[in-house]
Design a protein that fits this description.
This protein has 377 residues and is α/β, with parallel strands linked by helices. It has 13 helices and 15 strands.
C-alpha cells in the first residue's frame, strides 16, 4: 500500500499537483451580519455605466462564497444579486494560474505568464485599465487587504517581470495614474528605499489613518495603515475593507469630472491566504468581511444609478468543498484538498447597467476587455 502511495505522490509531483491529505475545518457561531438587499432599479439597464467597481475576492470559488452564506444564516449581499457568470482563469504559462498572471489579465485584458505583473509574455509592459481610461478622463483607485505591492493591487499600477520585485513595484507607484490607494501597510512602505518613499509622498498625500483630516482636501490620496489594520480578521483587523471601499468610492466620485466616471478595484486578499493555510474558519471570516465591502459598492450603485459592480476572483484556492454541517446553527464544515490554487472556474456576480454583459462563461482577460468597452469613450 505504501508503495502505491509513494508512486502516486511521485506521479502527482511530476504533474505539478500538490498532493496532500485532505484537511477538514469547521466554523460555528459567527455573529450574523445580515446582507444588503439591492433595489435593482439600475440592474441590467441598457445605458452605459459611468463608473465601474471591480471586486476581486482572491482565491474565492463557489465553496468559499457558499461557506460564508451558510455560516451567515443563509444570506449574503453576493447571493442577493441576479446576474451571474463564470470565469476561467488559466494563464499564458499554466492551466493553474497565480494571482499575478490573473491580476494582470483582469488589469490589462491580456493573458500573461505566472509571476508577471503588467507585462506580456515577452516581458514588455502592457497598459492597464487605469492607464487606458486616464486619457478618456476616467480616474482610478485601488483598495486591498494585501500589501500594495501584492500581485492583485500591483497589477493595476506596476509593470514588472516578477511579482517578487517589491522595491521596483513600489517605485512604479509615483508615475502611475492612480488617484487613490488604500492597502497594507505603513511598515512595508517604510521598508522601501528612502528615495521611493519620497517620490510617493511627492505625488500622493500619504496618511496612515482614514480619519486623518488631510484625506479631505487631498488631490491624490494614499492610505497606508499599520499592518495589523490590513492583516487577518482573526489577528485583529476590524472594518478596514468596507470602510476603505466606501472612502475610495466617495473620494473618486467627488473628484471625477462632471460627465466622466471612475474605475475602482477592490481586493479581498486574505480569503486566498487563509485557504493556502487550509484555515477554514479564517477563510469564512475573510469572505464575510469581503461581503461587507460588496454591500458598500452595491449601496453606492443604488444611490448613483450609473455604476456597474463586478465581483469575481482571480482563481480558486485549496479545492475547497462545503463538506457538511448544520446551517440552522451557523455550522459549516469545509475540506481543503491542496494548499495551492486550482483551475476550477470561479463565479462572477454583476450588478448595474450592462451587468448582463458578464453572464455566461468568459476568460478573466475578457472581463477587462468588456469593462474597457463600456468605459472607453
Ligand atoms: Zn494564492
Amino acid at each position: 500500500m505504501k508503495r502505491y502511495l509513494a508512486l502516486f505522490l511521485a506521479a502527482a509531483i511530476a504533474f505539478g499537483a500538490q498532493a496532500q491529505e485532505i484537511v477538514k475545518g469547521s466554523i460555528e457561531g459567527v455573529p450574523a451580519q445580515g446582507s444588503y438587499h439591492p433595489t435593482f432599479s439600475s440592474d441590467g439597464a441598457d445605458y452605459l455605466p459611468r463608473n465601474v467597481i471591480l471586486m476581486i475576492g482572491d482565491g474565492t470559488g463557489l465553496a468559499q462564497i457558499m461557506a460564508g452564506y451558510f455560516a451567515n444564516n443563509e444570506e449574503l449581499t453576493y447571493t442577493n444579486l441576479k446576474h451571474m457568470g463564470w470565469v476561467t482563469t488559466k494563464s499564458a504559462s499554466a492551466f493553474v494560474t497565480d494571482s499575478a498572471a490573473s491580476g494582470s489579465a483582469y488589469a490589462t485584458g491580456q493573458k500573461t505568464y505566472n509571476n508577471a505583473l503588467g507585462v506580456d509574455v515577452n516581458k514588455r509592459p502592457i497598459p492597464n485599465i487605469p492607464e487606458l481610461l486616464a486619457p478618456c478622463g476616467v480616474i482610478s483607485g485601488v483598495v486591498s487587504t494585501d500589501d500594495l505591492n501584492g500581485a492583485t493591487p500591483g497589477a493595476f499600477f506596476a509593470h514588472q517581470i516578477h511579482r517578487r520585485m517589491t522595491d521596483e513595484i513600489w517605485a512604479d507607484l509615483p508615475s502611475s495614474v492612480l488617484k487613490y490607494f488604500a492597502a497594507g501597510s505603513q511598515e512595508v512602505f517604510e521598508a522601501r528605499p528612502l528615495e521611493t518613499q519620497q517620490a510617493i509622498q511627492k505625488e500622493f498625500t500619504v496618511v496612515h489613518s482614514m480619519d486623518d483630516p488631510k484625506c479631505k482636501d487631498a488631490e491624490r490620496l494614499g492610505v497606508l495603515p499599520p499592518a495589523v489594520e490590513t492583516g487577518y480578521i482573526v489577528k485583529g483587523r476590524t472594518d478596514f475593507l468596507p470602510r476603505a471601499t466606501r472612502q475610495a468610492i466617495d473620494f473618486l466620485n467627488q473628484r471625477r469630472q462632471e460627465d466622466k466616471g471612475f474605475f475602482l478595484m477592490v481586493e479581498g486578499a486574505r480569503i486566498d491566504k487563509a485557504c493556502h493555510s487550509n484555515d477554514f474558519p479564517s477563510a469564512v471570516k475573510e469572505l464575510l468581511d469581503f461581503d461587507l465591502a460588496i454591500a458598500e459598492a452595491i449601496k453606492f450603485a443604488d444611490e448613483d444609478g450609473s455604476t456597474l459592480v463586478i465581483i469575481s476572483a482571480d482563481h480558486e484556492t485549496s479545492g475547497l468543498v462545503v463538506w457538511g454541517g448544520d446551517p440552522s446553527k451557523g455550522n459549516v464544515e469545509g475540506v481543503h484538498i491542496t494548499t495551492w490554487h486550482t483551475a476550477t472556474p470561479v463565479p462572477l456576480f454583476s450588478y448595474g447597467p450592462h451587468a448582463q454583459d458578464f453572464m455566461g462563461v468568459q476568460g478573466n482577460e475578457q472581463v477587462a476587455q468588456k469593462i474597457l468597452k463600456l468605459l472607453r469613450r
